[in-house]
Amino acid sequence: MGSRPAHLERMRSHPEIAGEVLRLEYTAMSLNPNARLYGKDSLLELFDCSRPRDRACLEAFERELDVPWALYHVRRLFLLSDSGARRPMMRSTERVDLGRPRQLARRLSAVSDRHGVDVEHDPVYGRARAWVRPRGEAWPMAEELFATAPARVVDKQDRHFERGWATLTAGSASQPPLS
Q: What's the 3-state SS for 109-147?
């Protein structure tokens, strides 16, 4: 894609496409905060609403977010091979509910409060995220969260995920029910 400034300039020249790209990154980061397009910076952080061309991109992004949202249950496994080498991460993403961002965030907050789980809120664009099992420091490890995002993510689960999950998390606390 070339240099970051050139890429940003192309986005500013095509704000509708920029809005879609920003939504893609925002959705990915909702489910995995490490899914930034530019390493330590998210693309969204690179736009300044006080600049008219940037504002056009941000407005297109907000239009992209004006769709049904979903509450997702996301689990990841970071496993080791028999030799002790890190294996590729395994994941499971499941849509739990559909609705509007604030409605889903309220539901997530209510359930999380009952289970003593903190909820992160994005006050600007509406994402909510609750870490049931935060990522650890050492492999093997498991992480589990519930997050709201635009309802554009399909359910997916790696082969043998449930077996790995059951093995790694045996005897640990289970997920809070969403009821």
A: HHHHHHCCCCEEECCCCCCEEEEEECCCCCCCEEEEEEE
